[in-house]
Design a protein that fits this description.
Length: about 280
Amino acid sequence: MPELPEVETVRRGLAPVMEGRRILRVEQRRADLRFPLPERFAERLAGQRIDRLARQAKFLSVFLSGGEVLVMHLGMTGRFTVSGQLTGDFHHETGSLAAHDHVVFHLEGGETVTYNDPRRFGFMELWPAEAFAAYPRLIAMGPEPLSNRFSPAYLDEALRGKAAPIKAALLDQKVIAGLGNIYVCEALFRAGISPKRLSRTIPGQRAARLAPAINAVIAEAIEAGGSSISDFAAADGALGYFQHRFDVYDREGEACKRCGGTVQRIVQSGRSTFYCGGCQR
Ligand code: ZN
């Protein structure tokens, strides 16, 4: 499942292809993804110039010359591939994958940007640019890692009095935007904090370790081009581009890189948590 670093990697892959170009036409191959696609979707996009491709948390926002924003979310298995003159060789042209190509953007210059999503938890919506600050799916979200609003002091405030385990609190997008299972596990390991610890015990010294740990794992993952677990690909279709350098995630039974203990797996809120009981307290 793409998390913030993966979505940022996609944005960086798509921006040079999309920004400044006009959308000639859009092939819409189904009526819905996770939600119904907007009414007259292809018609509203045709002829628009793409002014800017931005990202907020795990949302990609395409600012269009006509005053609307195309908001896109990759869900669990969404990905974009780019073909055409700019990028040359192209992957994923097999029949089985093409069956999950749901939306194809034909851009001026001949490039195509194809949205493929086997499980269809992703979605696309159109929203007026002038009201984008009030886009409902973003308005309730907490600050992003690496943003000015995110700090130990913010974590103190957000976690104070909360009974939920810290693992669950960090997955809550209202607390921090853009984190998912992988980077929560990694950040808690980095900070030496048990995923089972109650959130209300974090403010103070632990928050002072946790906030920089979250920033560090996210910054390193963006640097590495995101991290792929299953069927996620970079925007340029370069499968295998991603690094697999997790300290604890998906390493059950292996040696802890810090203390030599054994990485354990537990299930919290229905999701696997990987951690070292020896050095995460
Ligand atoms: Zn350890």
